[in-house]
Specification:
The protein is α+β, with helices and mostly antiparallel strands and 122 residues long. The chain contains two helices and eight strands; from the N terminus they run ββββαββββα. The protein has one domain: Beta Barrel (Elongation Factor Tu (Ef-tu), domain 3), CATH 2.40.30.220. The chain is 20% helix and 40% strand.
Length: 122
């Protein structure tokens, strides 16, 4: 199998740089939730000019292939003196099935290794 640099995309061919990941599990339902945080979002300009190309999914790409994930929510964080400077974006999604969780974790390990990120259990 070919080695592919893991990437995260809102638009095909436009990789985003992940700043942080939070993983949670609902104690009552067992549903796992991931929240990606991006300090900057290269796709922000594409949202305005190419909205027909955006299919509402986040693509996680690595040597196993492509995972298409539909976000459960996207939060834009603003700040600055006037409160209109984009400071970051949070993108959350649920992983209900164990097989999806396991595939996601394999992707995250590859992404972390390729981008100098570490896993910290809190």
């Amino acid at each position: 199998m070919d080695t592919v640099t893991p990437s995260i995309e809102f638009f095909s061919g436009l990789s985003e740089e992940l700043s942080n990941v939070s993983l949670r599990r609902n104690a009552q339902t067992g549903v796992r939730n991931a929240v990606f945080t991006f300090r900057q979002l290269r796709a922000i300009e594409k949202f305005q000019s190419f909205t027909k190309e955006f299919n509402g999914e986040l693509r996680l790409i690595d040597e196993e292939g492509q995972m298409n994930i539909e976000p459960t929510g996207v939060k834009f964080i603003f700040g600055g003196d006037d409160g209109d400077d984009l400071k970051g974006v949070e993108c959350g999604f649920d992983l209900v099935e164990d097989a999806h969780w396991e595939r996601f974790m394999r992707f995250m390990k590859r992404y972390a290794a390729a981008n100098g990120m570490d896993y910290q259990d809190r």
